[in-house]
Amino acid sequence: MTILRISLLAAVAALAYGQERAAVETWVASHQRRIMGEFDELLRIPNVGTDRANIRRNAEFIRGLLERHGMQAELLETAGNPLVYAERNVPGAARTVLYYIHYDGQPVDLSRWKTDPFRPVMRDGAWDIAGWAALEKFPDDWRIYARSASDDKAPIVAFCAAMDALEGKFASNIHVVIDGEEEMGSPSLTAAIGRYRDKLKASLLLILDGPVHPNGRPTLAFGARGIVTLDLTVYGPKMALHSGHYGNWIPNPAIRLAQLLASMKDEQGRTTIEGFYADVPALTAEERRVLRSVPDDEPALLKLFGVAKPDAVGESLQEALQFPSLNVRGMRSGYVDEPRTIIPTEATAAIDMRLVKETPAARMVERVRAHIEKQGYHVSESEPDDATRLKYPKVARLKAGETMEAYRTEPESAEAMRVTLALTRMWGAEPVRIRTMGGTVPIAPFIRELGVPAVGVPIVNFDNNQHSDNENLRVGNLWSGIVTLAATMGM
Ligand SMILES: [Zn+2]
Predict the structure, then answer these.
(1) Residue among 109, 117, 137, 115 at smallest CA distance from 128
(2) Distance 123 CA to ligand 1 centre (A)
(3) Are residues 46 and 103 in the same domain?
């Protein structure tokens, strides 16, 4: 039924497509220089989150930009960097779409950048384009190099251009909030809801951040996994002991930790901790269809990574991402580089668990703790004292660290379908639909607290070096991003 619905609508949409897209593309083609000029100006303002003076310059510049593009804009002060907020309302509109973008960027290591990260450079492959700012046309495969070219200033400029291209023909009220602290974990964002709840009210939240699928097709993302980190330490003797004098008699904590970790997963990479997957409902046929339709090239990925056979948590990469995971990100015990013949005092594993919507952090940490106890361990959050060491044959310390919950809007829900169909209609083909992104986004608490359906609408190229040196944007992604955002404004 649902399959029929989407394929039928896609067919209808494909008939309508062409005209709308051509109109936006024609507009873009004749305004490339102006759009690129605005982008250049914005990229020239340094935007590392701790650089308060420049952060405010960014916020003020963006406020002016949004006003020039016909919005009513203001700065919303928070405990940290200001939010830029703007609205453009449509008389009689029943719905409001709130866009989320961020204007801060990751810190820069100047020694690793080929050119100044805040002096945008245009390149065709390895060739610098001289005097590019004066050009009228910018080919798709050129790239602009600057901090935040992709993450996340391109969406700000594309958002403004999309409004112009539509010439006010919006189907809903358009509101936008632009964060100045995303790369610092958005510490002030959720609290801002308390202060500005009325402004942030919406029918739908669209998140303009992150890259499209590596195959370059328009992409929607309906959720992201959360994370909780854990440090697990297993204790041996109080002091490192001679392995000749005491080997075979004093238990070795590295071996004990290895046994403990091995008890947490089977040979196929599936977690054997009781209840680990229990709260995740079985995927429906339609959900599987959405996952299967993502055009991942798994053989190419395995070849790139040098891995013969993936874990068997899901039937595919996308299916695997629908479940919580348990990952050992590092281990430490004794001496390796200058070997000493000792029995170490302790062994530590640094673990991260990726979470899904149905598996909140606290519950999953409890499940891990219960599992460790079932293996005969006394588990505490602090270092064991002498009395504890003498009382319990097996002692472990489990300490949870950084936590961020997951979020997901069902791809089949009404608002999610609305966005899917808007893009299908504009592009004449269904977008890549990512049910759950594997990584974690700091705005998940904001999304959960706002309580509105949220859909990610990424526009930038996947190979943009975001967070790293020589960040760049493929010019064609800016142009196609404007078309994609125009589609979301016309729905
Ligand atoms: Zn970002």
Answers:
(1) 115
(2) 23
(3) yes
